Amino acid sequence: MGVQRPVHKDAKGVAAVVSAANAFLNTLTSDQQAETLLDFTQANATAWSNLPCGSSCRPGIQTGSLSDDQLAALKNVLKVALGTGKGTGYEHVLETLKADDVLASAQSTSSSSDAPTDGASDAPSADPSATASSTATDAPTGTPPSGGTGGGAGGGYGSGIYFLAFLGTPSATGTWQLHFGGHHLAVDITYKDGKVAGASPYFTGVEPTSWTDDDGTTYSPLAKFRDGLLKLTGSLSTEQLAEAKLSESFSDVLLGPGKDGDFPETKEGIKVSELSPKQKKLVLEAIHPWVANVDDATAKQLMKTYARELDQTYVSYSGGTALDTQGDYVRIDGPSVWIEFVCQNGVVYRDQVHYHTVYRDHTRDYGSEFSFS
């Protein structure tokens, strides 16, 4: 694979990530450091999943095994690497973890008649309009190992079942990866010579799609992702929609875990060069929420690249465009950018859909360190 230009040229931001990473490592015991610091191999880098399969499908140290101080230091790594403020990758990660606590609470409540009530006020409450199934099964993309709700290494739901690994030694000179994820989340940021070389793959999903916390705050972690696509597809004329429609049906994203390098040989849908200037702007706005999973400077550089390639980018969909029904699917596929968004039937909340999405880059996944051809 050809050498790709790093997407972020300002090394100061990377130095801050390295500093935060070292501060976190300094809170750990030698055994915990051994869990966290791993080799930057293809096997480790590609070990991520959307499933609640705990440590059986991803490397690193588990959030639930950390002390409060250690967890705070871990979150600071994510904050520095992913940006702060509304609409950033760090905020999205926190909301994704909250969603998994909602899922754990709902599944526990629906499957246990003697679930403890003390301390319930500390757990987020799901939207009352959503009903948790008492016969919830595993996610449709596979079967996680046994362990049940809250089961650490085995699997399950909850913010304590996410894992952080540094693949390679955090450094302003070497090559290494920040690898963080759990159910419905995979963050992979690759650094090379003090620069961000890749901000993908990035998987994010959510169930339930929205809920209201006990303090009255309503969360919808993937709303801005979905809404950008709705504005884009909503701008298409009848003729444009016919051209963008895919013949295939999709029950999940095409390029999820284990599908590295499996980009379709032929791009499908409507070519963005055929769209109006306003519609082209909507394509870029639709892409941005996924790219915002990394620091602002890197995101800005990536967006410039995708803007330059916009006329060679394609938009397509399958099912409906409302993104509210099983099989509704939208894709953006460019020379570099690849984004998918799909609706699946709920796993715990059976009366509503939940979302799976993935962001990849044809040439920058894992910092272009591996060849999958």
Give structural notes.
The protein is of the alpha+beta class. It contains nine helices and 14 strands. The strands form two sheets. Strands 1, 2, 3, 4, 5, 6, 7, 10, 11, 12, 13 and 14 form a twelve-stranded mixed sheet that branches. A two-stranded antiparallel sheet has the order 8-9. It is globular, with a radius of gyration of 20 Å. The N and C termini lie close together (9 Å).
The coarse silhouette is globular
The total strand number stands at 14
The span between the termini is 9 Å
The number of helical elements comes to 9
Q: Strand fraction band? A: 15-25%
The low-confidence runs, each spanning 5 or more residues with pLDDT under 50, are 112-152
Round the mean pLDDT to the nearest integer and report it: 87
Largest sheet: 12 strands, mixed
* Backbone structural class: alpha+beta
Describe the structure concisely for a colleague.
The protein is built from 9 helices and 14 strands. The protein has helices spanning 11-25, 30-36, 42-45, 68-82, 89-111, 223-234, 238-244, 277-291, 296-308; strands at residues 37-38, 61-62, 163-167, 175-182, 185-192, 195-198, 202-206, 211-212, 218-219, 270-271, 314-318, 329-333, 337-345, 353-361. It starts with 10 loop residues before the first helix and ends in a 12-residue tail after the last strand.
